[in-house]
Input
Amino acid sequence: MIRAEGIGAFAAAPAEVLAVSYDFSRHRRLLDLGGGVGSFLVPALRRHDGLQGTLFELPGAAAVARQLLDREPEGKRVEVVAGDFFKDPIPPGHDAIIIANVVHVFSPEHNRALFRAARAAATPQTRLLIVDMLTDSTHTQPVFAALAAGEFLVVAGEGDVYSEEELREWLLDTGWQPLEHKPLTGPTSLLVAAAKGAPAEGPPAAWPLRSHSKSTSEEPLTRPAKANPPPTGASRPGRGSRRGGRG
Output
């Protein structure tokens, strides 16, 4: 319980900024994948009375979330669903999905799988809100995010920090259209994507993408010409090779 509340405190600042800076009034059902104790759901629901929330978490974390949400008035509008988003069906029918402080826990392969599973559960109107510490293309800025990469690897066994370009690539390959990227607080930023077409299937391809860090409006970004994919297992400059499995 203490650890859960500590994680919630860590997420409090970006969660409050997200609730203010993103227009949740367009949505009716908000799903938080790997939502911990509801740190991102509660501020959004507090500001929007018509919003219903669903928190999807592993069974142990889900049990703790239920206890903590019982203390919050907004908890009455949150359904807590226990499951593993790599194994179990993701609750469908939500027009907004949050993936907050999750991407840095997993390998590129698992993040692609997560985005693909979220797309399969999405409606045509769904927006995907990714909140995390995204770096620039050199993986050196912001400095705090770059320094955290080693900690994520040690704690999760495969974690890392990723650039905005990498996430845009994964989103395009898994049925999402990147729309905008903007800072929230400290090294944390928001990347918004819209559901597009049918859920993507098959192996992902490598696509070089431009940076759109200064984008402030929801304007779809087009995919540039296809480039040859890097060799399997290739490492990025200045960083170790990727870990492919979940430990």
